[in-house]
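Journal club prep, shared notes

We agreed each person brings one worked example of a sequence with its structure written out as tokens. Mine is Acyl-CoA thioester hydrolase. I'm keeping it raw so we can talk through how to read the token line rather than staring at a rendered picture. Sequence first:
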Amino acid sequence: MPVSHRLRVRFGECDPMGVVYHPNYLIWFHEARDSFLQQAGIDLQALVRKGYSLPIVDASCSYLRSARYADEITVIAQTTATRVAKLAFEFRIVHDKTGETLATGRTVSVVLDQDGRLLLSLPADMKVLEAPRQPIEAAV
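Then the structure, token by token:
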């Protein structure tokens, strides 16, 4: 099920014209991903203590409309199905007042063991992510 992460655009996230500086969208994706995992009951720090790491190996963002200082927005995060031990997330950033989609994106993280080897299946602590998923377009 998609998770919504609400935030208000902060002054420090904007350029001198009050428009959000583009790398901040990826930071918001990261925050929404962390919210998703937390709501799914996955403790990332516990996974790290067990020796797992989840490096991001791919990230993309399509900028459709600008977010501006003080805008209230929602970042919607949803996992997508994968065949190996990786976490693929899709994101959509929506302007709360207008309902317009400001950006869409995707990140992919692989799951490595303590020796840096790629796992072929998700650790038991992450099996909840294999549940059926609702399309991100249906969320808001």
